[in-house]
Q: What sequence folds into this?
């Protein structure tokens, strides 16, 4: 047998090791949905405490199962999922996405315009990496889904937040958007239906955004991951269906509408005026090839999901569980003194406002950590969604009615104590 001796270290006990720092590209990147409060919650759980987690829209843990036909189809095709696929994705699921864009009235989409990804999240990052140079600006809503802000920053760009107006049902402030466009602006991000507010944008608002993009030759990125999670008979309009002279990049996936978060199956569609975007599209093709392909099992779920029974309609329609829980959460929260909330028309979240006179919060992350410590309920602070003031929080209304009632009761008890302490 051959033995190898470990090389003796030349370090002495008094030597100081050079710190290994994170990349400075991450200086402006954060994702508070899985931030410090979650770390605190994990430690509390390790200590034996039970935490009600209302911080993330992870449907499976609340008993929302993926449709059986999706699971069966993935299992049936698993033997064919071991190899790499085309860098943009398999033919059949991309064809299904193409048909879906036709249903949404998005014109001129061919197979080469469709990219499958490991969830829409991977494709958001890819879309920004393929576009931005250092100093380029992207208009992102405030509040936003924070991955958009993080992806812009990671790509070397500067996220510029335009305000969505709570007083008008969280509609984008078009004039604020207009004021923030500069020669460095490359794109506008539209999250519709919106996370975290649950707003659903009407055609008139979308047309105003398109006109801004048209005037300033900007790309419109449309995050439509909740386009079927709609309440009260609301209908979703894809912004890319409203014009063909602007470049649109539309992102969607199975995570929410089909309760398939862990399958990481998403897609990105390039449409509209593509003739002047050859360089950008070449960049997207390079990035798609570099990651080799999206996961194959998740790709197998797409065709079945889009072409099968749309069970989401039963969850959001009259008597549906999601509709009931939305109504319950809204009622319980707005019964708390000093709490108001625009009732969401879509998605899975509430974004309530705390009256600053009754709740003089200066650090909303600390506020969330105090709530967690006292009542064992985990939320996300409003500034975690790049909101402009420490006066909001986001709540996921996915727990069953009993647990949701319990959680809102704990929040009410904490807020009652907070008011008394700060009276």
A:
């Amino acid at each position: 047998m051959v033995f190898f001796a470990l090389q003796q270290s030349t370090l002495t006990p008094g030597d100081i090791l050079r710190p290994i720092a994170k990349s400075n590209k991450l200086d402006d990147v954060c994702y508070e949905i899985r931030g410090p409060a979650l770390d605190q919650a994990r430690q509390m759980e390790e200590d034996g405490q039970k935490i009600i987690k209302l911080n993330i829209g992870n449907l499976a843990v609340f008993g929302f199962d993926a449709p059986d036909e999706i699971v069966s189809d993935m299992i049936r095709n698993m033997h064919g999922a071991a190899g790499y696929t085309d860098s943009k994705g398999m033919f059949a699921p991309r064809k299904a996405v193409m048909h879906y864009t036709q249903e949404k009235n998005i014109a001129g989409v061919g197979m080469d315009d469709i990219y499958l990804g490991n969830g829409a999240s991977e494709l958001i990052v890819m879309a920004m990496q393929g576009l931005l140079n250092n100093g380029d600006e992207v208009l992102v809503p405030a509040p936003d889904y924070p991955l958009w802000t993080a992806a812009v920053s990671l790509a070397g760009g500067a996220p510029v937040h335009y305000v969505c107006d709570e007083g008008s049902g969280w509609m984008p402030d078009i004039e604020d958007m207009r004021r923030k466009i500069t020669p460095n602006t490359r794109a506008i991000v539209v999250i519709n239906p919106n996370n975290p507010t649950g707003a659903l944008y009407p055609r008139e608002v979308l047309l105003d955004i398109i006109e801004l993009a048209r005037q300033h030759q900007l790309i419109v990125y449309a995050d439509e991951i909740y386009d079927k999670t709609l309440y009260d008979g609301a209908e979703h309009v894809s912004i890319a269906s409203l014009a063909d002279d602007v470049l649109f990049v539309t992102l969607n996936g199975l995570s929410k509408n089909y309760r398939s978060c862990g399958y990481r199956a998403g897609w990105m569609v390039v449409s509209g005026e593509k003739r002047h975007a050859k360089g950008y599209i070449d960049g997207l093709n390079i990035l798609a090839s570099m990651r080799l392909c999206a996961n194959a099992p998740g790709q197998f779920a797409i065709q079945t999901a889009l072409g099968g029974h749309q069970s989401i309609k039963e969850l959001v329609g009259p008597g549906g569980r999601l509709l009931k829980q939305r109504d319950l959460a809204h009622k319980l929260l707005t019964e708390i003194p000093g709490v108001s909330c625009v009732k969401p028309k879509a998605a899975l979240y509430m974004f309530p406002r705390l009256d600053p006179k009754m709740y003089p919060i200066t650090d909303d992350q600390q506020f969330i950590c105090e709530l967690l410590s006292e009542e064992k309920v985990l939320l996300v602070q409003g500034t975690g969604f790049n909101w402009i003031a420490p006066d909001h929080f986001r709540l996921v209304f996915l727990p069953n009615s009993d647990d949701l009632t319990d959680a809102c009761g704990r929040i009410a008890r904490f807020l009652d104590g907070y008011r008394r302490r700060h009276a």
About this structure: The radius of gyration is 23 Å. The CA atoms of residues 65 and 323 lie 17 Å apart.
